Amino acid sequence: MAKRTGWGLPAVVVLSSAALLTGLVFYAVSKVAAAGSMLLYAGANTITYTGKDQYADEAFASIIDYLEIAYRLNPVTQEWEQVTEYTLMVYGEEYSIIVSEDCVWTF
After folding, report:
1. How far apart (Å, rounded) are the C-alpha atoms in residues 84 and 50?
2. Cβ neighbours of residue 30 under 8 Å, at least 6 residues apart?
3. Measured between alpha carbons, how far is 102 from 75 in angstroms, rounded to an integer?
4. Which of 100, 7, 10, 107 is nearest to 50 (CA)?
5. Distance of alpha carbon 95 from the chain centroid
6. pLDDT bucket at 106, cuts 50 / 70 / 90
């Protein structure tokens, strides 16, 4: 029989919750460490930007030879706007990026 804690929960459940929390923290850290690059396929790619806030000319530097055009989904109007070199790319916003061939985008 499981030992009960002060909250009336079995100790086994409390330990399992702690183990689960540790696993979630590890998962979140490992996902952040892997961030910073994305595989883009020839044609249109709709993505959620996970890089640091920066201007498009800096963000797209690694794929400039393949970049045909990019659009940003305006979060207020829900309309697609063309990205220019002076567009500030913001973490968590949605973009449609059209490239001429498969490439790895590092941002």
Report:
1. 19
2. none
3. 28
4. 107
5. 12
6. very high
Task: Residue count of the chain, please give it.
Answer: 107
Do 96 and 40 touch, CB atoms closer than 8 A? no
Q: What is the per-residue pLDDT across 42-98, written as a single tens digit (0 to 9) for each?
A: 999 999 999 999 999 999 999 999 999 999 999 999 999 999 999 999 999 999 999
For the chain, domain boundaries: 37-106
